[in-house]
Amino acid sequence: MLSLIKKPLLILPLAAALCGQAFAAQPALTLKDNDTWVMAGDSITAQRMHTSYIEAFFRTRYPQWHLHFRNSGIGGNKAGNILERFDYDVAAWKPTIVSIELGMNDANVLNPDSKEAPAEYIAGMKKLGDKIRAISAHPLFISSSPVNDGSLMDSWASVRCRAIHLFTLALVELGQKENVQVVDQYHPLLNLWGPNMIMEHAGILAALARELKPGNKIPQMESLQSFAKAWENQPAGFPLGGDPVHPALVGQYTMAATILAALNVDREVSSATIKPDGTVVAAKYCKITEVVAKDGKLSFTRLDERSPWPLPPYSAPPALQLMPGIADLSLYTLTIPGLPAGQYRVAMNGQVVATLSHEALEKGWNMSTVLEGKGPLGKRANTIEPLIGELQNPLNNAWRAASKEKNPEKLAAAQKAIEECEAKVQAACQPEPIRFAVEPVK
User: Fold this and answer.
1) Burial environment of residue 13 by CB neighbours within 10 A (0 to 12, 13 to 18, 19 or more)
2) What are residue 273's DSSP bridge partners?
3) Closest CA relative to residue 436, chosen from 271, 215, 288
4) Most C-beta atoms within 10 A of its C-beta, which of 110, 235, 237, 435?
5) Does domain 2-197+236-262 have CATH number 3.40.50.1110?
6) Which segments of the chain belong to CATH 3.40.50.1110?
7) Strands 331-335 and 268-274, how do they pair?
8) Max Cα distance, the chain (Å)
9) What is the sign, positive or negative, of the torsion defined by CA atoms of 72, 118, 155, 261?
10) Rounded distance between C-alpha atoms, residue 190 and residue 196, angstroms
11) Alpha-carbon torsion (388, 391, 393, 394), positive or negative
12) CA triplet 436, 441, 442: central angle to 5 degrees?
């Protein structure tokens, strides 16, 4: 760890590069209207965080479709547990897609290097793949996320984190043999979270060292104070929240983004190019109307066919700083070529959301990073997320309980409640016209 701390500026860029490499080479997961995706897994799935973020992505990318997402996560589960409850908590939903996200509990072994270590896990995953295909659904295997304990590749802070590495390799091999799509979220997240934790802890240590006084009599005080001085103005890590196994908001957003990128999702939301004189040069997946160009100010109404991934203002900023590639999953662009040199204020529905240079607007500005709570994108995110939370928590659990009991009356009531909530979610995901105003800063 000390050798890494000597070169702090290299850590996060290296992690970003490694993540970019890991995102490649997966076939796209193709959804269609009326698909039902059951997301089965353990307590990390049962948190209903990254799974809900993935749901929100697809619902806003394809708002005209009627998509259904069902959470089938239960704490402590291994592959065998999902096999036991498969009929009432997976197959009963009549899914067209079933993802199995496991490994954290399966890989909790003493000797991960033994050939027998992943055998039960792999055998269980194979059986799950067979059962998914037997109900005519598309199987998707997702590896476990890492333990957020500062582990780096071949520099393990825990046996469990090394075990998940080996189990993930075995899962990828199984997918190749069985022709099942596999998402390896473990390795790109390991390359992101490990260096981030080192940065986070080093920043904490430096802050403590700066408070040392001559009378503290701390061993190697001079070395600690030298380290604290050297660490000034270095980038800090970002707390993922939660615990090492169950990250909270920041960690869960990076999980969702890693999975979506690996699935090669459609990244384009919409794009528009408008000249300063009001000429609409191009508009893809959107309509530009009511254009006014006067006294150096440009205003127009934009109605999109799709919407950017809803990122709640209170949690997305640190996730975007840790993993800037999140924004690349929602290319929601505005381009204004030929503006006079200077700075420009951009307002959405009367709310100033950004101040940008003419170069940034000429290059093309990705508006998906606009997270102001009062702006239309922030408001929309804050509407969609609670609705999905209601759908995936109490309503989903009521349906599961009724299915397990084989109680038709309770099942019908739960299904009705889900359908009513889904209608609200879909309505909230429909794009609405936004009035833009772009004017120079005087």
Assistant:
1) exposed
2) 282, 335
3) 288
4) 237
5) yes
6) 2-197+236-262
7) parallel
8) 74
9) negative
10) 10
11) positive
12) 140
**Residue pair 403/89 in contact by the 8 Å Cβ criterion:** yes
CA distance 36 to 98: 8
DSSP 328-379: GGSEEEEE-TTPPSSEEEEEETTEEEEEEEHHHHHH-EEGGG---TTSHHHH
Distances from the Cα of 260 to the Cαs of 46, 167, 185, 252, 285, in angstroms?
Answer: 18, 21, 10, 12, 21
* Both structure tokens of 336: 């204004």
Helix (H, G, I), strand (E, B) or coil at 420: helix
Give the whole-angstrom CA distance, residue 108 versus residue 77.
12
Q: At what angle do helices 159-178 and 119-134 cross, to 10 degrees?
A: 40
Provide the residue-wise pLDDT of the chain in tens; the chain has 442 residues. 333 333 333 334 434 444 444 444 457 788 999 999 999 999 999 999 999 999 999 999 999 999 999 999 999 999 999 999 999 999 999 999 999 999 999 999 988 888 888 999 999 999 999 999 999 999 999 999 999 999 999 999 999 999 999 999 999 999 999 999 999 999 999 999 999 988 887 777 777 878 777 777 788 877 877 877 877 777 778 889 899 999 999 999 999 999 999 999 999 999 999 999 999 999 999 999 999 999 999 999 999 999 999 987 777 788 888 999 999 999 999 999 999 999 999 999 999 999 999 999 999 999 998 876 668 988 888 899 999 999 988 888 899 999 999 999 999 999 999 999 999 999 999 999 999 999 999 8
Cα→Cα distances 219→6, 202, 215, 268, Å: 20, 18, 12, 55
Return the residue matching tokens 């300063």: 276
Distance CA 412, CA 193 (A): 43
- Alpha-carbon distance of 103 to 183, in angstroms, equals 13
Per the DSSP assignment, residues forming a β-bridge with 352 are 347
